[in-house]
Write a structure and sequence with these properties.
Blueprint: E1 9-13, H1 16-19, E2 46-47, H2 65-79, E3 83-87, H3 90-93, H4 104-119, E4 123-129, H5 135-141, H6 148-163, E5 170-174, H7 185-190, E6 198-199, H8 207-231, E7 236-242, E8 245-248, H9 253-276, H10 283-290, H11 300-306, E9 311-315, E10 319-322, H12 356-370, E11 374-378, H13 396-415, E12 419-422, E13 445-447, E14 459-461, H14 463-473
Parallel strand pairs: 1-3, 1-12, 3-4, 4-5, 5-7, 7-9, 8-10, 9-11, 11-12
Antiparallel strand pairs: 2-6, 13-14
Bound molecules: 6-O-phosphono-beta-D-galactopyranose.
C-alpha cells in the first residue's frame, strides 16, 4: 500500500508559449509572450510593440515542441507519465482573438498532441490561458482591463471544449491568476500594458487596471466553468495559483498582521473568489488600501457564485518572509521579489529560497480552507546544468530538491490532505517565464538550445530521468 492514491496523477508541466516555438506557423498570431525578448537573472527581458530585427525573441523557436511533439511525448511515456500538463496557445486558435471562425490548422495541432498522449495513456491537463494572450487585444483593449475580453475568451473556450471532448477532461482556466495582484503580472498575465515598450520590470504599475482585469478574468473563468459543467458533465475544472508561502519574519505582532495581509493579497484573494464563489470579507479594505474602485456589473456576482471550480491547483517553488522592518535583508523570488530572507533556508542560483516543509504546510493550509481536491501542478529547481565527462547531466541537486518536496507531499497526505497529483515544472528544458533564458533549466530531459538562440534541439536524458521513472513506478515509495 502506498501513501499516495493509486490513481495519483504523476507527470510534468509545461506551457505552450515557453516550449512550442513555431510562433507564426500555420496561421498563428503573435501573443504577448512573442513580443518579449530574452533576458537573464541580471538583465530584465523587454517587451516591444513590433518585432525588431536582429533581436532574439525566445518564444519564436523555443524548443520547437511543435515539430518534436511525438519524440517528446514518447520520452514522457518512457518515464511513466500518467498526466501531462500543457497549455493551448490562444493565438493558434484565434490569431488576434477577434476572428469569428477558429484557425483549423491550430486546432489540428492540438488534436495531434492529445491523440499522441492518448496513445500512451497519458491524461492531458490543459491550461487554457498560460501567460499569453493575443497581442492585438493588448493594443485594442488594454488586455483584460477591457470587458470585451470576457466574450472573446468564452468564444475560445467553447471551441476547444467541443473540439477536444473525449481527449481532454481536466482543464485549468488561468495559469497563476494571482500574478494579476502583483506588478509583474501586468505583462505576463493581465496584459494591461497598451502602448508600453521597455524592460518588463519597469512597466508602469497601475493596480486599478490590474484589479479590474482580474475581475474580468474571474467572471470569464466562472462563465466557462459554468458552461463546462452544463454542457460537458465529465469535465473537471480547476483554478491555478502561484502560491508564494510567506512567514512572519519575527513574532512581533506587527509582522504577524502584515504577513496575514500579504498572504491574503498574494495567495488567497483569487482562490477565495474562484473556490468560494464570492469576494472575501477582507476585499473591501484591500481595495481601499490600494485606492481601487472596481466596476462590477449586474449579474457578475451571481456568475461568480455559479462558476466555482472543482479542484484547486497551484505552483510551489519557494517561500519567503514578511516584516515591517524596512532594513531586513531581501530575497529573490517567483514573479514577486518583495520578501525578506529566511535565515533557515538555502536559495537557488536565482535566489529562490528552497523550502520543502513549506509545501507540507501550504497543502494543509489550502486544504483546511477549501476542502476540495488539490494538485501541485508546478514545482522544481531552475539550475545551470553542465554535462559530465560521460556526456550526461548528473543533476543530483534537482533529484534532491524534488525528493525532499515529494517527501513533504506524502506527509501532507498523512495529515489528511486530498492530493490528486504532481506535475513538476519544465519536465523538458524550456524558456524561463521570468527571464527568457534557456540557461535556467528544470527538465528531466536536456535540450540542446542555448541563450544565444543556437543549438540543434536534440533531446537527452538527464540523471533525474531514470530517478523520476522509478519514483512513478513505485507510486512515490522509492525516492
Ligand atoms: C511559474 C510559471 C511558469 C514557469 C515557472 C518557473 O511562475 O507558471 O510559466 O516558467 O514559474 O519560472 P521561471 O521560468 O521564471 O523560472
Amino acid at each position: 500500500m502506498s501513501i499516495l492514491r493509486d490513481d495519483f496523477l504523476w507527470g510534468g508541466a509545461v506551457a505552450a508559449n515557453q516550449f512550442e516555438g513555431a510562433w507564426n506557423a500555420d496561421g498563428k498570431g503573435p501573443s504577448t509572450s512573442d513580443m518579449c525578448t530574452n533576458g537573464s537573472h541580471k538583465v530584465p527581458k523587454r517587451v516591444t510593440r513590433t518585432i525588431l530585427p536582429d533581436t532574439l525573441y525566445p518564444s519564436h523557436e523555443a524548443i520547437d515542441f511543435y515539430h518534436h511533439y511525438e519524440e517528446d511525448i514518447a520520452l514522457f511515456a518512457e518515464m511513466g507519465f500518467k498526466c501531462f500538463r500543457t497549455s493551448i496557445n490562444w493565438t493558434r486558435i484565434f490569431p488576434t482573438g477577434m476572428e469569428q471562425e477558429p484557425n483549423e490548422k491550430g486546432l489540428e495541432f492540438y488534436d495531434r498532441v492529445f491523440d499522441c498522449c492518448k496513445k500512451y495513456g497519458i491524461e492531458p491537463l490543459v491550461t487554457i490561458s498560460h501567460y499569453e494572450l493575443p497581442f492585438a487585444l493588448v493594443e485594442k483593449y488594454n488586455g483584460w482591463e477591457g470587458r470585451e475580453l470576457i466574450g472573446l475568451f468564452e468564444k475560445y473556450c467553447h471551441v476547444i471544449f467541443e473540439r477536444y471532448r473525449g481527449k481532454v477532461k481536466y482543464w485549468l482556466t488561468f495559469n497563476e491568476i494571482n500574478a494579476g495582484t502583483m506588478p509583474m503580472g501586468t505583462i505576463l498575465s493581465t496584459g494591461t500594458f497598451k502602448g508600453y515598450e521597455g524592460p518588463i520590470t519597469e512597466v508602469p504599475d497601475k493596480p486599478q487596471e490590474r484589479y479590474q482585469a482580474l475581475h474580468h478574468q474571474f467572471v470569464a473563468s466562472a462563465k466557462v466553468v459554468k458552461y463546462a459543467h452544463e454542457h460537458y458533465p465529465e469535465y473537471r475544472m480547476g483554478n491555478m495559483i502561484c502560491f508564494i508561502t510567506s512567514y512572519p519574519l519575527t513574532c512581533n505582532p506587527d509582522d504577524i498582521v502584515r504577513n496575514q495581509e500579504s498572504m491574503r493579497e498574494t495567495n488567497w484573494y483569487c482562490s477565495d473568489v474562484m473556490v468560494r464563489g464570492e469576494y472575501p470579507a477582507y476585499a473591501k479594505r484591500l481595495w481601499e488600501r490600494k485606492g481601487i474602485s472596481l466596476k462590477i456589473e449586474d449579474g457578475d456576482l451571481e456568475i461568480l457564485r455559479e462558476g466555482t471550480v472543482d479542484f484547486y491547483t497551484f505552483s510551489y517553488y519557494m517561500s519567503n518572509c514578511i516584516t515591517v522592518d524596512p532594513n531586513a535583508q531581501g530575497t529573490g523570488g517567483n514573479i514577486v521579489a518583495t520578501g525578506a530572507k529566511n535565515p533557515y533556508l538555502e536559495a537557488s542560483a536565482w535566489g529562490w529560497q528552497i523550502d520543502p516543509k513549506g509545501l507540507r504546510y501550504t497543502l494543509n493550509e489550502i486544504y483546511d480552507r477549501y476542502r476540495i481536491p488539490l494538485m501541485v501542478v508546478e514545482n522544481g529547481l531552475g539550475a545551470y546544468d553542465e554535462k559530465g565527462p560521460d556526456g550526461i547531466v548528473h543533476d543530483t541537486y534537482r533529484i534532491d530538491y524534488l525528493r525532499r518536496h515529494i517527501e513533504q507531499m506524502k506527509e501532507a497526505v498523512k495529515d489528511g490532505v486530498d492530493l490528486m497529483g504532481y506535475t513538476p515544472w519544465g519536465c523538458i528544458d524550456l524558456v524561463s517565464a521570468s527571464t527568457g533564458e534557456m540557461a535556467k533549466r528544470y527538465g528531466f530531459i536536456y535540450v540542446n538550445k542555448f541563450d544565444d538562440g543556437t543549438g540543434d534541439l536534440t533531446r537527452e536524458r538527464k540523471e533525474s530521468f531514470a530517478w523520476y521513472k522509478k519514483v512513478i513506478a513505485s507510486n512515490g515509495e522509492e525516492l
